[in-house]
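Q: Structure tokens for this one, please.
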Amino acid sequence: MEYRVINWELRPNPNRPEEKSIGLITFNRPEHLNAVDVRLRVELDILLDEIRHQSHIKAVIITGAGRGFSAGGDLKSEAGPLGAGEEDFDMGNFGPYKELAHYFFNDLRHSVLQRCFRKLEDLAPITIAAINGPAVGIGLELCTLCDLRFASDRAKLGEVAVPAGFLPESGGSRNLPKLVGIGKALEMILTGKIVDAAEAERIGLVDRVIPHDKLLDEAFAFAGQVASAPYLSVRYAKQLVKFYWNQNRTDEGWRRELEAIMEITRTKDCQEGIRAFLEKRKPEFRGPYYDNPPYET
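A: Here is the predicted structure, written as tokens:
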């Protein structure tokens, strides 16, 4: 596949220039703050398949082009099929199946995302999120799926799904509490609170804060150190640490996340959240009583 919104490079180990063993994934939608649209999901899903079949890759660094890591899901591309766009969205001549097709393709985009993020979490090489700016929503959840998180001193992180009418759908509800504790995780999830790099390091959300212009250099230096260590020792060390870390990861958990987001994206609160974001205003959520409220309006 031709990668259009992801840049993929295989770079030498700084400690062994003759050995190309460190991968660099760069989300490349800088004009949209690297928001995760449909194509980016598909490209990342395919790329992760490519990586997991290359045993010489020992570490993978993920970052974003431009001024940020990722603004999360691309609500502009999501608005149309959910009925939250400015016009009646037309995906083609589906005739009487039009509404059903909208639901199907919305469900599909979330299924692809979850499948892709499961592959990332299970990737054999060490994964490092080099957070070069804002990482919110799906962008933050992706970071929590990586083994380590190195943040630029310009980074800002937040779980903004709930205030936007969604919910964490890709392991965020599972991983964020383990990193920062249940109370802090619920505060971030329920309110959409954004934390800067210093606070993120203090609460355990990121492992290092690095001057912005040295972020990738330090990430590659660490990746080179890991890539120079004994191959099987590193692989099994990660495998065992993740085995214990993932004790509460179940197929039922993934299924519940997927079913929840599919139901939520059919609601008028979700439509309102998208419209409010696109119109740059405060949302007015009234669910579940939009049509038949049990009180006077």
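A few notes: The mean pLDDT is 92. The two ends are 53 Å apart (CA to CA).
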